[in-house]
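Title: Prediction job returns without error message
Component: structure pipeline
Severity: low
Priority: P3
Assignee: unassigned

Description:
Job completed but the reporter wants confirmation the result is attached to the right record. Sequence as submitted:
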Amino acid sequence: MHADYLVIGGGIAGVSCAEMLAYSAPESSVVLVTATTMVKAVADISQLTKLLTSFNVVEKDAMEWEEEHAGVKVVQGLVTGLDSSKKTVTVQNFGEIVFTKVCICTGGRPNLISDSPFVLGIRDTESVIRFQEKLGQASRVVIVGNGGIATEMVYELDNVEIVWAIKDTSVSSVFVDPGAGEFFIKELHKDKVETDKPVKRMKYTVRGEDGPEFQGSALGPDWHKGFNTRGCERGKKTHVEYEVEVKQIMSKEEFSGSNLVQEKLEEFEEKDFNVYVELNNGKVFGCDFVVSATGVVPGGEVFKHVVNVNEEGAIVIDDSMRTSHPDIYAAGDVCSAGWVPAFHWVQMRLWTQARQMGMQAARSMVTHMAGEESELDFCFEMFAHVTKFFGHKVVLLGLYNGQKLDKQYEVLLRVTKGLEYVKTVMKDGKMQGALLIGETDLEETFENLILNQLDLTVYGEDLLDPDIDIEDYFD
């Protein structure tokens, strides 16, 4: 088989790349290789501002997706080799595909804290299903990690005791500062509001136990919707352990043979558990299983014989998503931005950036094929991401945590308990970043203020005065 454009990986980056290739080069042959029977597609796209896009991620049967995208041929199988001199890719149980240009979108794998059978990494639908099966019988879980999936899980789980072990001084610190973390902690102890909005349940298939050990693609922003998130306890209790890491994970037998004592928690049930987690502060917690939500490791190592791969295992790309080989591109979690980025942009392994990179790679591949130079899309001018934590809309703009500013900045804050948290990062009177929690309606105004670098010194602290309609000022 020959493909003008070959895309490896059925996650958000790969599918976005293939869709854009089919749209931009309708006369060319486009082939998408996916290791699983499902692909991740983006649906319900809503453009909130120039840079902010909210969308849902849906899982589709690969063949069904192929029927909807007539310009793309889907091949199901695991890629076992890439020969850059012959320009071929070998796919298990399929054979060789000759390509003119290829884009690698194989994502990352969960950075698991242990290979114990009682430790689950949440990354793809299959791992959520395993988690769901175990949760039905569970009365207590230990969640390790402080990013988006850990944060969402602590909020979404019901009828279970949760011990949340984080290495930082505040919750959700991958995304928010300690003040916003405090805002969320107060939400933790409130009863969750059940929304009756219809949820498109993801379709999924589960391979048999003897199936190949490869990872499916990363979950979308609403990964917990449509899945059972209830344990077997009555009610929910949450305990957070700050500034800790896991020292060891022990089976019931290993724990009883040690001199360690299980930590007693007020209102938590005392009983024997399947597995025991010792933290580096000396505390030991028993639980039914452990969730390792400690980020992903880029899966670029397997391609290091053909392209430049950095120490963390990420494929290094330039601003056209091209690797060190002129006909090989990469996008999504598998790669690392090797260009000097715009001042207000930072790379984070998020669904939004996987989609943006996949589309940029496609545009670059098509323009390079025509012998022209590609331009970096405007979305790489400034970091912008919208998500939901603890039931609240969360918008991150620019250098929202003061990244790159060498701790030389001011912060303006407006907090309405339980409703909103507005933070702007200011330097020399200009806005460099913002964090908005709740329905603030400030995202478009703040996005423009960061992009335009207007001098706001004259407004001082009035910038966030709730009695001043700031949007009218800067229309």
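Comment from assignee: result matches the submitted record. The two ends are 54 Å apart (CA to CA).
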